[in-house]
Amino acid sequence: MSIHKMIALHPDVGDDFNEMLATAARHAMFCAEMCTSCADACAAEMMDMRQCIRSCLDCADVCAATARLAIRRTGQNIEALRMMLETCASICELCAEECSRHDHEHCKLCAQMCRECAADCRAALPTVQ
Question: Which chain regions cross the lipid bilayer (predicted)?
């Protein structure tokens, strides 16, 4: 199954399919789940991981909201979508920075996903007009 295909099938898309935005939405969905999983793993660590948990959960919420806005094609709210993409990229970078402070493999993986999501959100920004 592919979110790209689902978006392309929307009656309002037609020839106006935005590949970059669909990719950003897909990675934001994945990033939300990776951040939630990392927060859960951090909660099980024997050290104080409160800040990492907070960063991951905040990032997960922003990514999930960004993905939901990015997949909608009925009507337009370009300004809101652009703000969400910008915010998602910034929050992902903050989360990646926090996760990078820890040697846990789940944090390293989360940081990598956050960086990829931030890059995709930034790449999609010029295509949203």
Answer: none
CATH number at residue 11: 1.20.1270.360
Residue-wise pLDDT tens digits, 10-24: 787 877 788 999 999
pTM: 0.94
Q: By CB neighbour count within 10 A (0-12 exposed, 13-18 middle, 19+ buried), where does 13 fall?
A: middle
Which pLDDT value is given to residue 2? 85
Q: Where are the alpha helices (DSSP H) in 1-129?
A: 3-8, 19-44, 50-71, 78-99, 105-124
Q: Is 86 exposed, middle or buried (0-12, 13-18, 19+ CB in 10 A)?
A: middle
Does the pLDDT of residue 1 top 70, yes or no? no
Q: Which domain holds residue 59?
A: 3-127
Domain count, the chain: 1
